[in-house]
Amino acid sequence: MFRNNYDSDNTVFSPQGRLHQVEYALEAVKQGSASVGLRNNTHVLLLALKRSTGELASYQKKLIRIDDHIGIAIAGLTSDARVLSNFMRQQSMTSRLLHNRPLPLSRSVMAIADKAQVNTQEYGRRPYGVGFLIGGHDATGPHLYEFSPSGNCLEYFAMSIGARSQSAKTYLEKHFEKFLDCGLDELIKHGLHALRDTLQQDKELTTLNTSLGIVGPDHKFEIIEGDALAPYLAQMDPKDDGTAQPAPMETDP
């Protein structure tokens, strides 16, 4: 994208009816490392690729626990994600203190969507440059939402965001009909395969660059990383490199 006369502020519409500042924020999400979310009839999974800024730096945190029943996977600016995740935590704490109950997932999603939408409408602000996959389980069952900097929030059976996320979406669209009825271990396997498709051909998922989050009816939101993730990675099918084995040559008897 290049600078033009209509991107000086987020309140300025272009002649085509576009808000360029909001579109730039959406592009920031596409620059972040990939995150994948999917669910079955009982559980929601969030998976994310972690990046390191250098050999001496630790891997960035991509999964964040909001409450016992809510977690998020992020793609985009981690500083913006920290601010928004703290806001979501405050909303959850308020619900428990005032009403003595967990915050319904739909209300948490709408609260953050309203907060983001204000930044697309008021002068002197900028849209948040981060997108979320929000997974949780409440009284109405498991839910998976996508939050974007424009303030839009949509519910999905499976979704991916971030760099090269289209490859993961292709896998999810191909297999999503199996997700609702499959077991938790099989669902994790599908999630890892979708996340692996966002990698370059010579890269693989490892215990260092992968995070897994699980939440369910009797399963508080749990983030699995490091050595605890190794058994799940070991169950993955071999990567298809796209090369076919040559057919054996026929020899005359």
UniProtKB/TrEMBL annotation:
The keyword Transmembrane helix does not apply. It is found in: Cytoplasm; Nucleus. Pfam families: Proteasome, Proteasome_A_N. Coiled coil: none annotated. The keyword Transferase does not apply. Residues 6-28 form the Proteasome alpha-type subunits domain. Keywords: Cytoplasm, Nucleus, Proteasome. One of its GO terms (biological process) is ubiquitin-dependent protein catabolic process. Gene3D superfamilies: Glutamine Phosphoribosylpyrophosphate, subunit 1, domain 1. GO terms for cellular component: cytoplasm; nucleus; proteasome core complex, alpha-subunit complex. The 26S proteasome consists of a 20S proteasome core and two 19S regulatory subunits. Belongs to the peptidase T1A family. This is Proteasome subunit alpha type. It comes from Puccinia graminis f. sp. tritici.
